[in-house]
Amino acid sequence: MNLKSKELLNTILFFVGLAVLLFLLRQFVFTPVVVKGHSMDPTLADGERVIALKNTEIKRFDIVTFPAPDEPKKSYIKRVIGLPGDTVEYKSDVLYINDKEVKEPYLDEFKSAVTDGSPLTLDFTLSEVTGEQKVPEGEYFVMGDNRRNSKDGRMIGFINKKDISGDVKFVLWPLNRFGTI
Question: What is the pLDDT of residue 14?
Answer without folding.
Answer: 84
